[in-house]
Write a structure and sequence with these properties.
The structure is a homodimer of 210-residue chains.
Chain A lengths: L7 H17 L5 E2 L1 H8 L3 H9 L5 E2 L3 E3 H11 L6 E6 L3 H8 L8 E8 L8 E2 L2 E5 L5 H5 L3 E4 L6 H10 L4 E4 L12 E4 L2 H5 L2 H4 L8
Helix pairs in contact in A: 1-4, 2-3
The structure holds a DNA duplex (22 and 22 nucleotides).
Chain lengths: 210, 210
DNA sequence: GCCTGTGAATGTGTTCACAGCG
DNA sequence: CGCTGTGAACACATTCACAGGC
């Protein structure tokens, strides 16, 4: 292998591979690109190409060592070690995030939660005590650099601004609003309604209610 | 304009444009590609190219008619009219979906909710009465063709199977599992943890906890 | 013989640059 | 003169096909 930058599309698939491999690891020690392909629904040659960007990991005639591959993908995604995240907005969606156990597998821990509603302050959910949003400044001291925005649309931008001010450099934005951040801060947005909005386009016309 | 199929990447951006335009429509009657570009963070030439796939909508020297554009995008995405959706899994995430008001703007209505827990059956949330999962068959009669999967990982595939059997042809999968469906059924999956998993990769190394 | 790794070929998406309309 | 619409150029991603290792 020679020098390669990892294409962005490959980076987007890495979590998919990781999820699949973590799931397979309990039963399989090795897996071929074909076997993994069936499991994660990505073409085998694309899997091989993707993996080839970050080194030679497979054994011709055998396949890939599952554990070795998991560790390498984690390393590339910087998921080795624990990442502490702060949640802002303990509404319905925020609660769901706070109570969700699946982040641990990727090394994430929701270590702080904030809400604008004073009535919610002090409540302990899943081991995390909710604080008032005005206490966001404490994140810098606690070296929490990852933020999850789960506030209503109209509060999204100011929440993001406050997070950046508190030293956050990566934001998962779950609000239905495009937030603007300074260079050096990365935002990934998920607006569930926008995914849903794409669904009718792909559905058979005859069955689609008009 | 001559014949054009709409590229998939363009279809993915249409909901983004729609969200932005809906938001702009209260203040602006017309908008230029440059103006919209700033609002939705997509390059102006890409916006023009995207819009050019489905006709000539702009007026040179002026811009686009916001309302006309909204209607046309809705038509392409088949979001004109109302789409009834069924939610399966009234846990934390399912509840958040059920209580979320933002689907209406795109013409979606959660018209049914199901859970495997008999204790939840009969509860009315946001005007929707939760039924036991065994009642899923009623969807066919009610002509509900859209399903939202919000069940735990291990129940995802069987839930999808049951949905397909009940006549669902479009699934929004919110579970952390890749579900397999027959041809003719479209699945769009969102696994929040997998988006989060990509964040550290893009964050400045010096600040990332290792 | 099976499976990886990878150049080359192909396919798809984005950007440029500008003609032409209002 | 500003702004759209769009071929042409460019950039990027996927697929093919096969040499070479196990």
């Amino acid at each position: 292998m020679r020098y390669h930058r990892i294409p962005d599309e490959t980076v987007k698939r890495l979590p998919t591979y990781l999820r699949g491999l973590l799931s397979l690891s309990s039963e399989h020690q090795r897996i071929s690109s074909k076997g993994l392909a069936e499991y994660v629904a990505v073409k085998p040659w694309l899997i091989r190409k993707d993996f080839s960007y970050f080194g030679e990991f497979g054994t011709p005639g055998v396949g890939y060592d599952v554990v070795k591959l998991i560790n390498h993908i984690k390393q590339i995604l910087r998921l080795d070690g624990v990442h502490k995240a702060a949640l802002v907005g303990v509404g319905n969606l925020g609660l769901a995030v706070l109570k969700y156990a699946g982040f641990k597998a990727y090394g994430f821990e929701i270590a702080a939660a904030f809400d604008i509603d004073p009535a919610k302050a002090g409540k302990k959910i899943n081991g995390v005590t909710v604080r008032h949003i005005s206490k966001l400044g404490s994140l810098k001291r606690r070296r929490i650099t990852l933020g999850i925005v789960a506030v209503p649309r109209d509060a999204a931008q100011e929440t993001a601004d406050a997070m950046v001010k508190a030293g956050i450099s990566g934001i998962l934005n779950l609000s239905p609003y495009h937030i603007e951040v300074p260079k050096g801060v990365k935002v990934i947005s998920i607006d569930i309604a926008m995914y849903l909005a794409r669904l009718p386009y792909y559905m058979p016309t005859t069955l689609t209610a008009r």
